[in-house]
Amino acid sequence: MKREQGRSLYSREEMLRLNIKTLQERTVSLQDIADVAFRQQAKWNPDISMQECVDSVEKILSLRDTFHILQLGAEIDRLTDEGQIKGPIYEILKTDLGMFGIDELFGLELAGMYGTIGKTNFGDIDVNKPLVIDRLNEEGKHEGGMCHTFLDDIVGAIAAAASTRVAQIENEEAARKDPTIKEIKLDLDV
Ligand SMILES: [Ca+2]
Question: What predicted TM-score, i.e. pTM, was given to this entire model?
Answer without folding.
Answer: 0.90
